[in-house]
Amino acid sequence: MSIAVCPGSFDPVTKGHLDIITRGAKVFDKVIVAVLINHTKQPLFTTEERIDLLKQVTNHLPNVEVDAFNGLLVDYMKVNKANAIIKGLRAVSDFEYEMQMASINRLLDEEIETFFMMTNNQYSFLSSSIVKEIAKYQADVSSLVPPIVEEALQRKFAAK
């Protein structure tokens, strides 16, 4: 069985993320969407909220699971018997950083392969940071995130 991990902060999950996850699910037997717990960042959504949103927007994909991890990705992959990483690339600027990460992961575990997927052109500009900035001003983000995420963003910023 081919098991891939699609890691990220997903704060919040966007249509660009969902595009990569959906396409990855067509290639691999199982895809684990792994929410990175990064204690140095202050996310808008808690880890539990991000997991819940991801589960809701991927519930139509039977071979996709959602989980969270902290520490090294390669250690998480060993525990889950995964041998592939799926990363979306939006632009050339993403490639340099992701190439470094892929090289380090390969150095740490030569059995792990990283697969880069070019993001659909309609999402090439999209990031979670941009979505949060737009949503903070109550602007329309319906073309950028699934409806359930849009509602969660509205609730978050209404509470602030």
UniProtKB/TrEMBL annotation:
It catalyses: (R)-4'-phosphopantetheine + ATP + H(+) = 3'-dephospho-CoA + diphosphate. InterPro entries: Cyt_trans-like, PPAT, Rossmann-like_a/b/a_fold. Pathway: Cofactor biosynthesis; coenzyme A biosynthesis; CoA from (R)-pantothenate: step 4/5. Its cofactor is Mg(2+). Substrate binds at S9, K41, L73, K87. The record marks H17 as: Transition state stabilizer. ATP binds at S9, F10, H17, G88, L89, R90, E98, Y123, S124, F125, L126, S127, S128, S129. Residues 5-133 form the Cytidyltransferase-like domain. CDD domains: PPAT (cd02163). Its EC number is 2.7.7.3. Keywords: ATP-binding, Coenzyme A biosynthesis, Cytoplasm, Magnesium, Nucleotide-binding, Nucleotidyltransferase, Transferase. The keyword Hydrolase does not apply. GO terms for molecular function: pantetheine-phosphate adenylyltransferase activity. The keyword Protease does not apply. It is found in: Cytoplasm. It comes from the Bacteria. Belongs to the bacterial CoaD family. Reversibly transfers an adenylyl group from ATP to 4'-phosphopantetheine, yielding dephospho-CoA (dPCoA) and pyrophosphate. Homohexamer. This is Phosphopantetheine adenylyltransferase. It comes from Ammoniphilus resinae. The lineage of its organism: Bacteria, Bacillati, Bacillota, Bacilli, Bacillales.
